Amino acid sequence: MSTMTLAGAINRGLRAAMDRDPKVVLMGEDIGQLGGVFRVTDGLWKDFGPDRVVDTPLAESGIVGTAIGMAMRGYTPVLEIQFDGFIFPAYNQITTQLAKMHYRSHGAITLPVVIRVPYSGHIGAVEHHSESPEALFAHTAGLRIVSPATPQDAYDMIQQAIASPDPVLFLEPKARYWDKGEVDESRVASQLDADGGASAATAEMSRGRIAREGKDVTVVAYGPSVRLALQVADAAAAEGTSVEVVDLRSISPLDSDTVVRSAKRTGRVVVVHEAPTAFGAGAELAARVMEQAFFHLHAPVLRVGGFHTPYPGSKFEHDYLPNLDRVLDAVDRVMTH
Amino acid sequence: MSTMTLAGAINRGLRAAMDRDPKVVLMGEDIGQLGGVFRVTDGLWKDFGPDRVVDTPLAESGIVGTAIGMAMRGYTPVLEIQFDGFIFPAYNQITTQLAKMHYRSHGAITLPVVIRVPYSGHIGAVEHHSESPEALFAHTAGLRIVSPATPQDAYDMIQQAIASPDPVLFLEPKARYWDKGEVDESRVASQLDADGGASAATAEMSRGRIAREGKDVTVVAYGPSVRLALQVADAAAAEGTSVEVVDLRSISPLDSDTVVRSAKRTGRVVVVHEAPTAFGAGAELAARVMEQAFFHLHAPVLRVGGFHTPYPGSKFEHDYLPNLDRVLDAVDRVMTH
Amino acid sequence: MDAHGPLSDQGLVQLLNRHGERLEDERFSRYAADLDLEALLAMWHDMTVVRAFDKEATSLQRQGELGLWVPSLGQEAAQIGAGHALRESDFVFPSYREHGIALTRGVDLPEILRIFRGLQHGAWDAAEHGFHLYTLVIGAHSLHATGYALAMDRDGLVGTGADSDGAVLCCFGDGATSQGDVNEALTFAAVNNAPIVFMVQNNQFAISEPTTRQSRVPLAQRGSGFGIPAVRYDGNDVVASYAVARWALEHARSGQGPVLIEAFTYRMGAHTTSDDPSKYRSQADESYWAERDPIARLETYLRAQGALTDDAVDAAGVEAKELGRRTREAVKGWERPPAASIFDHVYAEPHATVEAERAWFARYEASFADQGVHA
Amino acid sequence: MDAHGPLSDQGLVQLLNRHGERLEDERFSRYAADLDLEALLAMWHDMTVVRAFDKEATSLQRQGELGLWVPSLGQEAAQIGAGHALRESDFVFPSYREHGIALTRGVDLPEILRIFRGLQHGAWDAAEHGFHLYTLVIGAHSLHATGYALAMDRDGLVGTGADSDGAVLCCFGDGATSQGDVNEALTFAAVNNAPIVFMVQNNQFAISEPTTRQSRVPLAQRGSGFGIPAVRYDGNDVVASYAVARWALEHARSGQGPVLIEAFTYRMGAHTTSDDPSKYRSQADESYWAERDPIARLETYLRAQGALTDDAVDAAGVEAKELGRRTREAVKGWERPPAASIFDHVYAEPHATVEAERAWFARYEASFADQGVHA
Lengths: 337, 337, 375, 375
Ligand SMILES: Cc1ncc(C[n+]2csc(CCOP(=O)(O)OP(=O)(O)O)c2C)c(N)n1
Ligand SMILES: Cc1ncc(C[n+]2csc(CCOP(=O)(O)OP(=O)(O)O)c2C)c(N)n1
Ligand SMILES: [Mg+2]
Ligand SMILES: [Mg+2]
What we know:
The complex is a heterotetramer, with 2 copies of chain A (337 residues) and 2 copies of chain C (375 residues).
Chain A: E1 2-5, H1 6-20, E2 24-28, H2 44-48, E3 53-55, H3 60-72, E4 76-80, H4 91-98, H5 101-104, E5 114-119, H6 135-138, E6 144-146, H7 151-163, E7 168-173, E8 180-183, H8 186-193, H9 197-205, E9 209-212, E10 217-221, H10 225-238, E11 243-247, E12 250-252, H11 256-266, E13 269-276, H12 281-293, E14 302-306, H13 317-320, H14 324-335
Parallel strand pairs in A: 2-3, 2-4, 4-5, 5-7, 6-7, 10-11, 10-13, 13-14
Antiparallel strand pairs in A: 1-8, 6-12, 9-11
Helix pairs in contact in A: 1-7, 3-4, 7-9, 8-9, 10-14, 11-12
Chain C: H1 37-62, H2 76-85, E1 91-93, H3 99-104, H4 109-116, H5 126-129, H6 140-154, E2 168-173, H7 180-191, E3 196-202, E4 205-206, E5 209-210, H8 222-225, E6 230-234, H9 238-253, E7 259-264, H10 283-290, H11 294-304, H12 310-333, H13 352-371
Parallel strand pairs in C: 1-2, 2-3, 3-7, 6-7
Antiparallel strand pairs in C: 4-5
Bound molecules: thiamine diphosphate (2 copies) and magnesium ion (2 copies).
């Protein structure tokens, strides 16, 4: 066990994956000598050289598109998109090519490409640097989408994502990059070294976890919002409400089973994410909980997310994003039934 | 009143808009001399000339991006994206630029760009020619998304979309292009000629309509699925179930008020769309109906859509897409409560 | 700057003119030096085969057996010439019209029609043939091709002088040159010195739009903007097509980096069977290009050389007929896999949503078996 | 093909060298002929103002008053030269570093900081200044610029010879040239003969990546690939910057179509205040370029001409100080609009979702007023 920041855990996870498999190649803008604008790849260029840590031209479609070609020849490209808001030039390559090639080829071509994206807000940034685009990808079959909330998950899941034969969008909660936590480095190593490691790893990263047990209300979150959900649980506990927190970890697949099981116990569900509420991941979760646990629900599933506006200037982000008060307000509302 | 196909109604609507406003310029691939691959712009190049009906280079990002610049100088570009599956190269321009410029400029810049997209399936086409990408855009604030289901709506709504100062994604149900219907051409003309015509037009195209009244179950659909919903209503009626059909017409904004009102009457809702169910527009609608009509619901809102797979080969599309049996099955299921 | 537009025939490399006469070119003749009459006959053979196949596919579409067909009519020389210049160690990224190259890569032509019958999106094993699946999103594959070429380089398959040396041939049309992706591919290839040949088949149209809507200079000139050497040639001349492609592939294989070649040709047929070219081009234009038919001029040459006999022509006709028969039978004989196969290969590992929907679908289908169809 | 890489200083147009000596250029001197000492002093003035502003903004960022700052340090000559070549009838599409051009377009510099203080995304009236908002998605605005230019052409504002004739100046960096959008912009501009000048400020870096990661040939060469005339010049030379930009703008305004100009310069500061250039470039490199400082060389020249007096320098210093003070006061004085303003201007017409959320937010805020903050 060692203590790491979430960013540090990803860095260590990348290093472990590169040590494990010489076909793992990092590609992105400024990830080499600079170590990425968030320093997540710090030191890797020095230790693995410019052929394993590649500074690409400034073109996201080109980064994803060339990665697809490399993956066709057996490489495992791990890409960095510099900020959430800059993934869209690659949207065509991701949704029409990366996501569909396995299907198009009847399983003959697998594309184990990982796309790392520092995402979400709360860092006081300028436009396009604080967005949460997960729902814009989750509708497209062929992609997996995960987001770790803790250093341990960051360390494990980046390696599981790299081991998975499927393309994975790996969303890194950038406001949590400097959060520290204990990390056991041995568990994922033994998982991946075992027979069927890639399958086990894929399955594991696709499952949510109960981050805190409770009995009155289920609060569902992922990535940057898990910490908020835990704060909500604390605050609610002080008022006598017992909150169960589900950390989804995976958005595609969405581990609705874990949520539905919890919802059947609590009868009340609140979903939190930074992405706009409208047409967000919370909608899918709400719809599934209703479909599968309708007769257990005491109250409608409520959603707390960003608003249906562009991400505003950073001086407004604390009003725009879910915060303790807004989530507690939703908890109170579901508790009135 | 005259009889037109849905494609013909759009053609007539475009012509009327071009007659009304010399700043309306059509742009797209093969829309000129050829009249578009579906002939929706047939005859317009001949009558308005190549400056009003522009064959562009083969680059969707370029089409949308240059249209933004033209709109900044007072033009109203009406774009054709040749097929649904080819809108993604323009995704960045649409979501980070077109959708956000009004906000970015604090309202100083309006971009009345209309993007026409023949969408949805059932035409026996090859890959990328049958998709329903509405949910991939509805999460982004700043865009309006509408889809007509009848020639009358096609005629009215294309003109309302062009009159609207906001960017509009105008989704044309291509399998319905050849459906015929009566069209009253005078109504929208007087709406647009009146004071505040653009506002009234925008508001009107943003509202759903009750396509058929009923009392047991509300079936919600839009675009290509409205016809299916009406067939379901007929079939259900034969079995003694009274189905109310809501034609949403608008996906952004989603006219959930009309649906919620209906849901409060019937207590049962089924949403149908061709797009994959997971993370689709049906999820948002289900979540809203639950939030706003929870205690009126006798059964969970059910969704019938495409599956979480790429759009399959056309020999499978009838299995992949919602059909009479699948929707009736959902109607039966909500009726069991 | 070239003063000529993108449809000019100035400065085209040509080694066999439309009258079937061989020409010399200082730079490229030597790349055609190994083309003896036997080799040329083999090319003629392939060109006739793919044209016959094209005809058959078109008629199957007309009969309703195919949803669509994309003919390569008129582009046989560009494709067969390039195809014969390829080595087994090379890898091709076609767009969707490269049936001629498919043939030279050992793809059984009728298999292509699985796509156009709506049975599947990809219809052959890309790795086995060194021939990637067709990509319908214009230009998207140019980046895959570049990445693949970079991977070949990493794998030590470039510039060693060994037979294992290879390069990528990436095909796209004149229209595709306007796509951002294609230009990004040129950038990535240039800065990384990728072993790739970008081959533009300028068939003068992107559906209805003439190449003048995509560029105001010849498309080969695009290369220079990225520091990529480029050549423009008569794509209806199979000898030049072979020679230029061979030069380009050798350049790339030997580690000298990317090349752009522009085959100036003409789409003699419709864009697809859904298209009606009479809407946007003249009979005169079509006649002009009919006189420049790539197969006819090779025939003239081979006949003049006494290399093409009536017997050979007859034999090719018989073979074409047989291919037609085999194609028809294959197409009509294909069984559609069960509906539930739509859930296969969405992911390589199980995905809960797909598995849940697959299970639902199985129950749903079973309910019909139990109860008969609803209503 | 140019044998030199993208960082070569071969073939740069130069009219004022680093020693502050004027040079002649056969083609471009005449475009600088109208630059008398007064005009040059005005340019010097603007360059010093924007540099002073840059310094103030950097220190405000260090004090935590701004989230970020993007200095234009070192690029003043390229920007002020171009800015002085503009007419009021022209329209500029900047990227996000064109504070120098902003100044010449009448934007009150402190206003720019509203963006970097997180108050808003756009901070001036684009139409009023003929200066579009900053665009942070690299290259995206190049297409807007092209469309805008085409609209100017439609509006009869090109090639008439009248003062109303205008052109678009579109600015982007070396890194941006790799984006698909920029290349699509070149295509759309070329085939439509748009009145636009694409100005690449090659400051040798895209954050940490040297221009060699974007191209293997000089970026100006990109133009020829699209049939667009191009010129490469010393972007630290304000005289050349003016002359080349003037030529380019006249070319475009007069209806002769698009031009690409590459200002070869150097980003003397960090990419942004979040960046640490010591991670990826040497002190030696920075010193080399410090000797080529665009302001210093103009000063040398003007002093040698007796046109720049100590008094003038002092006066500029006072003005800079005053601007600094005004900037600090402005920044600290801006009031944040109410939170509910985030719902404004999402759409031009009411949108049900926004209105419902706005209403919810009003109720939610009111609940605090009633009950105090939760918990
Ligand atoms: C991104 C994208 N946009 C539009 C289309 C529709 N489309 C199919 S083929 C074609 C024309 C392509 O022209 P060209 O590149 O010259 O190739 P050709 O068909 O002539 O071989 C178009 C516009 C597409 N397939 N992909
Ligand atoms: C599409 C996109 N990708 C990545 C970024 C992040 N980013 C901001 S500036 C920059 C470098 C730009 O370099 P260049 O074009 O040379 O302009 P410069 O900053 O040097 O003026 C990058 C990668 C972005 N803003 N947009
Ligand atoms: Mg073509
Ligand atoms: Mg730069």
